[in-house]
């Protein structure tokens, strides 16, 4: 249950807003950093999960790098103070302008997603008089066993370079004057809870690394992406992911030579748990077959349930827990039938004005908000 100490502060606040529990975020970052350091691993925070400035500042202070997926994310990471040496730029469709700006920032590495992109980066780097450090994002065709819409490492997905194109990449890299190959990169999907999936990934990475080494390329960096899943069902029991167990898999199954670095790009597992969307009950609609709880937050503030039928725990934080339970479809005010946070959700009997917390919304929540229906700008509140 959401802490009463915290929720007491919300009564007079204008809703909806995102609440970020910064002490929990700091604890999560420190456990992750410590677990990674124990194996000598490096973590870049996937800032697409949440680029709220307060959060980025804490992530940077905890020593993480930044994994960016647009020129604007690269610029923001630099603005916040991430060292360019710790900034990587990924994405299947980087524009010429974005590439040139990132070159001018002297970022650590571009994660390259096609043979053509490799050629374009070479041309733009030549023009800018720079050398671009690149890693090839390879599609390993490993099933992440997660929601279909957030799977990225299957041959049918748009992401990464297919293995049959590796000889073409090797050819470009051999002749390109402005490219420097740092390593190979993989990211197979998000919200992965079956850790065996990462073992399968390690097997593929080992295989592909050898392919390059046999052809005389030095692979200094093995970037295995992100994707570590979290517990959306019991946010207070498992508020921090098992980073030690996760990194332990890679330590055990990834073959590393002396001097080879292992990089990760975690997003969700670092920031999901610290965020909740706080909303107020506008109306209780009683029906014969159904009761609706109409909130003042909707899919415009948190899109995941509408987009992926994603589960987020919903709590009425104005009422004592588990008293007089009633089933509700918890919906928002947006003119879309998919604007629903949960069906048949058991909650204490609720009334107009009650505060509702939609938990574990710190990743892919605020950043995916939209102004559809000309909604207000998103608001925030932090616990220090
Ligand atoms: C290339 C890349 N790296 C890292 C991430 C971060 O993933 P997650 O938030 O699941 O850790 C993503 C998003 O899925 C991604 O596309
Ligand atoms: N936005 C997705 C994750 C996509 C990650 C980016 N590749 C989610 O909310 O779960």
UniProtKB/TrEMBL annotation:
Q: Where is the Orn/DAP/Arg decarboxylase 2 N-terminal domain?
A: 33-272
What EC number(s) does the entry state? 4.1.1.20
List the catalytic residues: 335 (proton donor)
Query: Which keywords fit this entry according to its UniProt record?
Result: Amino-acid biosynthesis, Decarboxylase, Lyase, Lysine biosynthesis, Pyridoxal phosphate
Q: Which residues carry this modification: N6-(pyridoxal phosphate)lysine?
A: 48
List, alphabetically, the InterPro entries matched.
Ala_racemase/Decarboxylase_C, DAP_deCOOHase_LysA, De-COase2_CS, De-COase2_N, De-COase2_pyr-phos_BS, Orn/DAP/Arg_de-COase, PLP-binding_barrel
Q: Name one GO biological process term.
A: lysine biosynthetic process via diaminopimelate
Q: Which Pfam families match?
A: Orn_Arg_deC_N
Q: Annotated pathway, please?
A: Amino-acid biosynthesis; L-lysine biosynthesis via DAP pathway; L-lysine from DL-2,6-diaminopimelate: step 1/1
**Molecular function terms from GO:** diaminopimelate decarboxylase activity
Gene3D superfamilies registered for this protein in UniProt: Alanine racemase, Lyase, Ornithine Decarboxylase, Chain A, domain 1
Which reaction(s) does its UniProt entry say it catalyses? meso-2,6-diaminopimelate + H(+) = L-lysine + CO2
The cross-references to CDD domains, in alphabetical order and at most eight, read: PLPDE_III_DapDC (cd06828)
Work out whether the entry's keyword set contains Oxidoreductase: no
Cofactor(s) recorded for this entry are:
pyridoxal 5'-phosphate
List the protein's name.
Diaminopimelate decarboxylase
- Specify the species: Pararcticibacter amylolyticus
